[in-house]
Amino acid sequence: MSTVLPVAQRGEDILRLKAARVADAEFNSDWLMQLASAMLVTMLERSGVGIAAPQVYISKRVIIVASRPNLRYPDAPEMDAVVMVNPEILEFSQATTLGEEGCLSVPNERGQVQRAQSIKVLYHTLTGEVMESTFEGFPARIVQHEIDHLNGILFVDRLSA
Ligand code: ZN
After folding, report:
1. Using CA of residue 73, residue 76, residue 80, residue 86, what is the dihedral sign?
2. Is 103 annotated as a binding residue?
3. Per-domain residue ranges for the chain?
């Protein structure tokens, strides 16, 4: 049974670190499974559509993406939560799109962020399987936002004037 974890807030150093890659030996480990499960529970409890490990004070390259329709993105697809380990964006579309973002680590603040419309991502599953997926629109925005967290970047750093 996973417990809800505290979420790091803007201003805390953990959110500015470049997170470490998950090592081969960590795939399929109890600790990695428990981390993902606790991140998922924490994200759902806060009604988030994504979360990155540094937000729960673990400086590792693990993110969860879980698009669903909401007021700002009524056409967003409802998808099962995808856990991505060591995600890397292989391709960014030329086309970009401006859209509103918020963050569990930046409460009560939202802003317009320019992101690639679609991206191709390489990542590992929790068991170490290599996956390659293309995301478009809102899910692509979430992936880019969460990978930013792994590099110490918050959406407020990317706000358009
Ligand atoms: Zn965030």
Report:
1. negative
2. yes
3. 13-158
DSSP alpha helix (H) spans, 17-156 = 30-45, 138-150
Report the chain (161 residues): mean pLDDT per 10 consecutive residues.
90 98 97 97 92 98 93 83 98 96 94 97 98 96 98 94 59
Query: CA neighbours within 13 Å on the CB side: how many for 100?
Result: 9
13-158 folds as Peptide Deformylase (3.90.45)
Instruction: Confirm whether residue 77 is marked as ligand binding.
Output: no
User: Does the annotation list 11 as a binding residue?
Assistant: no
Largest CA-CA distance found in the chain, in angstroms, rounded: 44
Instruction: Show the 3-state SS of 105-127.
Output: CEEEEEEEEEEECEEEEEEECCC
To the query of whether residue 146 is one of the catalytic residues in this protein, the response is yes
Whole-number Å distance, alpha carbon 70 to ligand 1 midpoint, is 16
Distance separating alpha carbons of residues 148 and 92, to the nearest angstrom: 14
- Please count the other Cβ atoms lying within 10 Å of the Cβ belonging to residue 58: 18
Count other Cβ atoms within 10 Å, centred on residue 39.
25
